[in-house]
Each structure stands twice: as structure tokens, then as C-alpha cells.
Design goal:
GO terms for molecular function: 4 iron, 4 sulfur cluster binding; catalytic activity; iron ion binding. It is built from 24 helices and 24 strands. The protein is of the alpha/beta class and about 625 residues long.
Length: about 625
């Protein structure tokens, strides 16, 4: 395959700008990630959208913020504005484990090397740009800005912080998936409209002088939150705020939100309605090279790219609304699916990749099996305020048919260049359990599960029960563990029928709000009884804009304002996490002693068997707990 010309990528250097014959740049994007020109990487998507609207775009990827700031100056002053993102992850989640230890790698950097972005990257980059170019507007986007758009708890500083707009000093923020508001902003910018006048665009946030009147737009009603200062004084007010923000973020007919912070008012305009199929296709069908910029060749592979380069993302959003997860908070609870034509076109593109060997690593999405699922009567969805479509029960208005997914799997399988197409994303197993999901009149769920199990499992199938305690699962907004057992039975029967050996890989979380130490001991015993020795586990990290983060900080559930017990100290978290590893010799004495103190010898017996005489040279317990997030 011939090497592609450098001009196929958006420019990273002035030399590349000059190669295009440009005398200036319209918009400069600053990102905490290396530049990978692929639809799974936000900077590439935003850059390509801007390009499609006729703008000349350049990218400053992972600039050095410690030297003379030459990276920030290399393109000079853009004609319209700077766009800033921390990258595909919150920079603090990217940098630190659940135990606040510095990570030694960064999946979004060549060679997986750490240290190429600062803590709170959005704030650091914007502060630098505002110092160098005080008269140039800065637009924030990406997950870090999106989930920190309002007063939020920061686990790493252990305190409440105001909207990221306050500390960054940016002019405007786009939250959620940014294509729709961005196109509106670009149209107005092209007409010469200043950012200070762009106040009626959906899905943006900005700061307004509290002493000036705030105009009404678009017949929006306004809901006022407790001020940032009130939240600092009263944790309950902070918790009550969250419910409003979550509800309004997931409505089609939402209200505008305001919050006083100092002498300013934070204004968060209502979100756009979920993108339709044509809009999603338009974003995915832009002319990506699907490869990292050539400048990184000598620095080594980019792990995040290697993981997804032969994968296809078929939809966005998740209607699960899990308490610990940020997907619905950023991508929305309503599913935005691509057309079958767009998906198959991307499969074709992948087969042309010079390194492709015939294997698609993932046909999936945030949850593998939510493709094309939506309300049967969308007028009901338009009025809905529930943060989840499947908790505590599956909505009777939700069309959970797996038929479109089964059909697309079969069409990809039939492609002459495809040897195997795997599903690497986690499967939402509760949608496939008839006792939980009553919307399976024609049996298409069973057809899907058989197709998935026999054709698309790469050795092991990932599912996420997350816990075994019903009390903890209710707080997580997850179904009872009994449904996992039913799913496992169904899955095992298909395996046996086809003489397959593809184990389930269940994910679990320790230290989640509502989980106590005995719950973790029970989890260990229940999973042992099912034949699991758990590996895919993580300790809970409170991330902004999640129910679980609010409980962790405030001590109460934001929807009921009732107390919820949460493990917070290092010792409590380590104790909970250690039960995952009951099968390792170095943990056994510790677990037995611990359960003895909890007056649960029955659990000790169930986990470890009868007490035997200690061997003289038996190693003492030493926890290898790191809190490192494994997924």
C-alpha cells in the first residue's frame, strides 16, 4: 500500500500548514491526546467536522506546558477561536489509580509513555492560551469539561470545585457529544458573531455577569441550582443539585439550568435531542485516515489506537444509567445508532488497512447490544425523566429487539475479507434474560445470543454484574445477581450444545457506595460457588457527574437524600478489595482472621475450607492492592 501524503491528516506543524497553501489558520485545537485521525478520537471528529464546514483547522497535540510555551505559539493567533480538550479521558482519571497513585503509562500517548499532559489539562491549556492570546475566544469540549461543567466533587483534591469554566477562564463550553452545538457555533462564528452573543445555542454552558439581566431564549424555562457557595457550606444542597442536573441532561424537552458562583452566573442551556441516524452517519463518514499522524512513527505505538484500530463503533449512548458510570452523563441515555450502510462502509475501510489480517476486534459500542434500541412511542420518551430505561425494571416502551444487531453481525460475517468479527465490548446480559426483560415476544434475544456465542466471542465473553448484593446493586442501578446466574445458565447451555469452551469474564467493583465488607465476603463466596477466580476487578473511583460520586462526597443518595454508607479510608477500601483474591495463599490467613472478627466463620469455611494447622513457613499476608482501574 502506498504511503499516504501528509496532507491527508489535519496539520500538526506550520510546515504542514504551508504545504496546504494556507496563509493563516481559522481554528486551533489543543488536545491532551496524541492525534489519531479516527472516529473514536474526539479531536479528530471535531477537527473533521470543522474542516467539512470549510474551516482551516490545525491541531496542537500534547503541547509542552513547562517550557517557553512554543507549542502554543506555533500557529500564531487563529482567525476565529481555540478549541481545548483534555482528551478522551478526564486527565485525573488518566493519571491516577483509585488509590491516588500516579499511573506509569498513558494509553493515548505514543509508546504508552506517561507525563505528556498536565493534571487538569483543560484548565492548564486554557490558562496558557488566555495569557498568550487574551482576545481570542476559547471553546472547551471533551469529557473532562463536559463532566465538570457545574459544581463537582474532585476526588483527587478531596473538595468541591466550581464549574471548570471558572478556573479555566474559557468563553464557552460544549457538553456531551458536540457535533450539533459545534455546527451552530461554526455558522455564527463565520458570520462574525462573537462568543458573547452566542447565548441561545443548545448544549453549551457559559458564565454571565450576575449584575446583568439574563435574557430568555427559545421559550426555555429556567431551573436555578443552589449556588456554588451554598454547596460548599451544605453537602445536602450539593446532592440535591445533582438530581436536577442529571434529570435535565437526559430530557428531550429540558430546562435551562443556572447556578450562582461568586459574582457570576453559570448558565447551562438544554441539550439537543439525540442525533438521528443521518446525523450520526455524517460524523462517522468523514474522510478519516483511520491512523495516527505519521510524526509518531519513531515514538512507538499508541495503545488506545492499537486496541480499537480494527473495531467498529455502531452506536453512542447508554440507557443503563449506572450510578458509577459517566457514559450516559456524557453521551446521553438515548441511543444514537448508525445506519447499517455506514457500519458496513467502515468495515470495508478497515479491510483496506495495511495491517489488517481479517479479524474485526469489536462490533460494538458503549454497551455491545443496544444498537438501534429506542422507545416504541417516542412521544413517551420526550416526556420521560427517568435516568435509566432498564432500572429498576425494563421500560415497557423500550424496543429491545436484537434483530438489527443479529442481521448486521451476519452481514459482516459474509464479507469476503472478514475471517472473524468479534464482539469485544461488554454485553448487557440483563437484556437477554427473559425473567428480567419481558420484551422478547418473538424470541429474537435467544437468536442473538446463539449468534453471538457461536460466531463472535474471542475466547471469553465480557459481562458486568458488578456485585452480588442486591442492596448494593440497587444503588448501582444494576439488576439482581440472580439474573446473572440465569444468563450464565443460558450461555453455558449454548456452549454445551455447540461443544465450545468460552468462559464468561465477569467484572466487579469493590468499595462502591452501599457496599460493606461482609458484602464483599459474600461476593467472593458466591462467585467461587459459580467457579470463578476473579481477575477483572476494580476499586471504586468517584468521578464527576455520577450518582456514586455524589454519595461518596455527601453521604446521601441524591434522589432520596437518605444516608448511604461508603468505604472511604485506604484501610476500608483495601479490605474490601482483598476479598477478590481469596484464592491466593497470601490472602487466606488475613481473610480468615477478618471474618472471625466479623463473626462470620461460615463465610470463612465457604471460601477457604476448614481451618488447618498453620505451616511454619507460611508467608504473611501482604496486599497487592493498587486501586488500578483495569477497564
Amino acid at each position: 500500500m502506498l504511503e499516504r501524503p501528509l496532507t491527508d491528516w489535519l496539520p500538526l506543524t506550520m510546515k504542514e500548514v504551508e504545504k496546504r497553501g494556507w496563509d493563516e489558520v481559522d481554528i486551533v485545537l489543543v488536545s491532551g491526546d496524541a492525534y489519531v485521525d479516527h472516529p473514536a478520537f474526539g479531536t479528530a471528529v471535531i477537527g473533521r467536522i470543522m474542516e467539512s464546514e470549510g474551516f482551516r483547522v490545525a491541531i496542537i497535540a500534547q503541547p509542552n506546558w513547562k517550557d517557553d510555551l512554543r507549542d502554543f505559539k506555533k500557529f500564531g493567533k487563529p482567525k476565529y477561536f481555540f478549541g481545548v480538550t483534555a482528551g478522551c479521558m478526564d486527565s485525573m482519571v488518566n493519571h491516577y489509580t483509585a488509590n491516588k497513585r500516579l499511573r506509569s503509562n498513558d494509553s493515548y500517548t505514543p509508546g504508552g509513555e506517561a507525563g505528556f499532559r498536565p493534571d487538569y489539562a483543560t484548565i492548564v491549556y486554557t490558562n496558557i492560551l488566555k495569557t498568550l492570546y487574551p482576545d481570542v475566544p476559547v471553546l472547551l469540549g471533551g469529557i473532562e469539561a463536559s463532566l465538570r461543567r457545574v459544581t463537582h466533587y474532585d476526588y483527587w483534591q478531596d473538595k468541591l470545585l466550581p464549574s471548570i469554566l471558572v478556573d479555566a477562564g474559557a468563553d464557552m463550553l460544549v457538553y456531551g457529544m458536540g457535533e450539533q452545538p459545534l455546527r451552530e457555533i461554526l455558522k455564527l462564528a463565520q458570520k462574525g458573531v462573537p462568543f458573547s452573543s452566542m447565548r441561545n445555542i443548545n448544549q453549551v454552558a457559559f458564565l454571565h455577569d450576575a449584575s446583568a439581566d439574563l435574557r430568555d431564549y427559545n421559550s426555555w424555562n429556567t431551573v436555578e441550582l443552589a449556588s456554588h457557595e451554598d454547596c460548599l457550606e451544605d453537602k445536602i444542597k450539593y446532592a440535591a443539585n445533582f438530581k436536577i442536573v442529571e434529570v435535565e441532561s437526559n430530557k428531550w424537552q429540558a430546562n435551562r439550568i443556572t447556578q450562582k458562583v461568586g459574582d457570576q452566573v453559570l448558565v447551562i442551556n438544554p441539550p439537543f435531542k439525540t442525533m438521528d441516524e443521518a446525523e450520526v452517519d455524517k460524523s462517522f463518514d468523514l474522510p478519516y485516515t483511520r491512523m495516527p499522524h505519521p510524526k509518531y512513527k519513531k515514538r512507538g505505538p499508541i495503545p488506545a489506537y492499537d486496541m480499537i484500530k480494527f473495531s467498529v463503533n455502531m452506536h453512542r449512548g447508554c440507557f443503563g444509567g449506572c450510578s458509577f458510570c459517566t457514559i450516559s452523563a456524557h453521551q446521553g441515555k438515548f441511543i444514537a445508532s448508525r445506519s447499517e450502510k455506514s457500519v458496513l462502509k467502515e468495515v470495508d475501510e478497515i479491510t483496506k488497512h495495511p495491517e489488517f489480517k481479517g479479524y474485526i476486534s469489536d462490533l460494538g459500542g458503549p454497551s455491545a447490544n443496544m444498537y438501534k434500541m429506542k422507545g416504541k412511542d417516542e412521544s413517551i420518551c420526550a416526556r420521560c425523566q427517568s435516568p435509566s430505561c432498564i432500572h429498576p425494571v425494563i421500560c415497557s416502551n423500550l424496543d429491545t429487539s436484537h434483530k438489527p444487531l443479529t442481521e448486521i453481525y451476519r452481514k459482516v460475517d459474509a464479507h469476503p475479507a472478514i475471517k472473524k468479527a468479534f464482539v469485544g465490548s461488554g454485553v448487557r446480559y440483563d437484556l437477554l434474560v427473559d425473567d428480567f426483560n419481558k420484551n422478547n415476544a418473538d424470541g429474537n434475544h435467544d437468536e442473538y445470543l446463539e449468534q453471538l456465542t457461536t460466531r463472535h466471542v474471542s475466547g471469553r465473553l465480557k459481562v458486568a454484574p458488578e456485585h452480588t448484593s442486591d442492596d448494593t446493586l440497587r444503588i448501582m442501578r444494576k439488576p439482581s445477581f440472580k439474573y446473572f446466574k440465569q444468563f450464565k445458565k443460558k450461555y453455558d447451555q449454548i456452549q454445551e450444545k455447540h461443544n465450545l469452551k468460552q468462559p464468561l469474564v465477569p467484572y466487579f467493583i469493590s468499595s462502591h457506595p452501599g457496599c460493606e465488607e461482609q458484602d464483599m465476603a459474600n461476593l467472593a463466596a458466591e462467585t467461587k460457588d459459580l467457579g470463578f477466580q476473579l481477575e477483572q476487578v476494580q476499586d471504586f473511583t468517584p468521578t464527576p457527574m455520577t450518582v456514586a460520586e455524589v454519595i461518596y462526597y455527601s453521604g446521601v443518595h441524591p434522589y432520596t437524600l437518605k444516608p448511604v454508607k461508603t468505604a472511604k479510608t485506604r484501610e476500608e477500601k483495601q479490605a474490601q478489595n482483598s476479598y477478590f483474591f481469596w484464592y491466593k495463599p497470601e490472602y487466606k490467613d488475613w481473610i480468615r482472621n477478618r471474618l472471625s472478627k466479623l463473626d462470620r466463620p461460615d463465610l470463612a469455611e465457604r471460601l477457604l475450607g476448614s481451618q488447618k494447622k498453620e505451616n511454619a513457613g507460611k508467608p504473611k499476608f501482604k496486599s497487592n492492592y493498587s486501586g488500578k482501574k483495569k477497564r
